Amino acid sequence: MKSYPVSEARAEFSELIDKALGGEPQRVTRYGKEAVIIVSEAQWLARRGAARTLGDLLVEHAEVLSDPDAFARPWVDRPLGEGIE
Fold first, then answer.
1. 34 membership: H or E segment, kind and range
2. Which CATH class is domain 3-68?
3. Of 4, 29, 60, 80, which residue is least crowded by CB atoms under 10 Å?
């Protein structure tokens, strides 16, 4: 994987995108240290699994959300100032 300093990456950004879309990740460094890697969206999604949305999470956790005890409060309400002497 080739590395580019930020200034060079900025000047050649379109080329970095084309290379990343071609399956070749591109590293961009800042002050000589690793900063970011540019990859295609397809590669990114493949590495982290399917895109996650709020709807996906709600469906995945529907059993927990339908359980009335899931939102049970572990404390008891009491009037403000009660118990203070």
1. strand 33-38
2. alpha beta
3. 80
